[in-house]
Each structure stands twice: as C-alpha cells, then as structure tokens.
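Could you help me review a protein record that somebody else here produced? What it holds is a sequence and that sequence's fold in token form. I need someone to confirm that the token line plausibly describes how this chain folds. Take the sequence as given and treat only the tokens as open to question. This is what I was given:
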Amino acid sequence: NGITSTASSNTLGATSFNDADITNVGDISLDSISSDGAANISIAPHASFDVAITTGLVVGNTTKLSSPATSELQVLGTAEPDASILLGRFSGDTNGPSFYFVKGRDAIGVTTTKLADDDEIGSIEWMGVDAVDNDFYNHAAAIRVKVDGDPTDAGDDDMPARMEFYTSPNDAAVPVLRMGIGADGHVGIGTATNTQ
C-alpha cells in the first residue's frame, strides 16, 4: 500500500491510496471530510457506495433524529433548500422520476415468500412537535398502501392493493382511518373500502 501526495499551482494537494491487489484498494477511516469555500466534495466509486448498517447517512446536519425509529437516511435543515428532497429526470421521452417502495417477507434480495392480505407495502407518515412532551413522535397524518386480497389469486404478477388515508383528530396523536380506495376501485369514506 502507498500514499501519494501531489501539489501544483492549481491545487493545494491530493492524496491517493493504491493497492497492488485491484480487488482491495484499501480503507480510509476518519471523523469528517471538509472543503474550503465553495468547493465540492465528490465521491465517485466504481461500484455501489455502501453505508454500514446502523451507521446511516445524515445530510445537512450532524444531529441524527430517532423518530419513531433511527432512519438510516435523514435530510435535516432549517429552510426549504436544505430540508427538501428533489427527484429529477431529464430525458427525451415520456417518463418521469420515480420513488419506489418495495416490501418482501424474506431476506434482502430473496423473493420466494409471497405477501399476505393486509401486509403494508409502504407508507408516508407526517409527524410534529407537540406542546407538552416537546418531542416529534406525534403522528399527524399518514398514507398507507396494503395488500388487499391474495396476491396469487390470478397467478403470476398479481398484487392487489388498497390505499388508506389517515388524519389525527384534535387532542390525539394517533391517525384515524378516514378514507380508503380498495383493489376493486371502490372508495370508502371513514372505512378502508366500500362494496358499493
């Protein structure tokens, strides 16, 4: 292994890590990476960039929140630019950017066990700080998608689902089901689905 430092009139210096074994180019252990002024820091791996489990990645802050669980990816800020996420796709076709929720019952990458009726496939949750506990564990609203039937009723490529909308009433922090759209397309007000 070796360390090479270079400097010129255009740069303050660079450090590169190399290894004779191209399958293992070495590790870097440090507490922080910073740059001067408006310079960017770019990480360009030749394969996937992995973040260790339980470590996580926090963007915009050094604090890591734990509400209701310590999420591995967090974006924290004090204004719209640093407290928002943008997905963009710029291509000469009709397709737009996508956000995917994937639910499985096996180990990561294994797809042998089908989902069951009422399994939650994904949810979007809204939470806020209350005036008593001064924490942000209080749920205000949610949109949840659940399996609505047997995924194998029609054979392969069958995933019936319903979408449920929840809001919390005054003096409460537990969202109540307000509306649902079933796999059959029926809409229920105050219930998950409606047979009408």
